[in-house]
Amino acid sequence: MTYNSRHNPFAPIHKLDRVELALNLATSAIDGSIGLQVVGRAQTKRAALWTYHESFAEDVTLEKGYGIGDALSHIGLVVVQDRPDSVERLDFALKGGLAYGERSLF
After folding, report:
1. In a 3-state reduction of DSSP, which class is residue 61?
2. Are the C-beta atoms of residues 40 and 16 closer than 8 Å to each other?
3. pLDDT digits (tens, 9 = 90+) for 37-74
4. Are 49 and 86 spatial neighbours (Cβ–Cβ below 8 Å)?
5. Which of 12, 40, 55, 92 has an alpha carbon 20 to 30 Å from 75's alpha carbon atom?
6. What is the structure's pLDDT at 50?
7. Which pLDDT score, from 0 to 100, does residue 89 have?
8. How far is Cα 30 from Cα 33, in angstroms, rounded to an integer?
9. Other C-beta atoms within 10 Å of 38: how many?
């Protein structure tokens, strides 16, 4: 077992090993939104490593723009390819940015 020396030298390093996905579909014309919640978990941690949630208006999703299918595909790719183990790493994988304090070349 590997240990995390950043905070507590005896705490194990938590690695993403499963993802729970909940998709709440609109059940009435009044509430026309679709909710997506994804939770990343590790066997070595009781609480979730990270939680991602987003909601989409069903009428907009079906007609144009970034929709629920796009969100599912994007979060699926991020989880499989990057295996984020914290909210910060999930956010970086989803949105991009500068890693490890890299300076911009421009």
Report:
1. helix
2. yes
3. 999 999 999 999 999 999 988 766 556 677 888 899 99
4. yes
5. 12
6. 96
7. 93
8. 9
9. 22
The C-alpha atoms of residue 31 and residue 37 are separated, in whole angstroms, by 17
Task: Name residues whose C-beta falls within 8 Å of residue 15's C-beta, 6 or more positions apart in sequence.
Answer: 42, 44, 83, 85
Of residues 34 and 65, which shows the higher confidence score?
A: 34
Burial 39-76 (b: 16+ CB within 10 A, else e): bbbbeebeeebbebeeebebeebeeeeebbeebeeebe
Q: What residues does each domain of the chain span?
A: 14-92
Residue type, 12: P
The pair of structure tokens assigned to 15 is 């690695």
Rounded to whole angstroms, how far apart are CA atoms 26 and 13?
Answer: 38
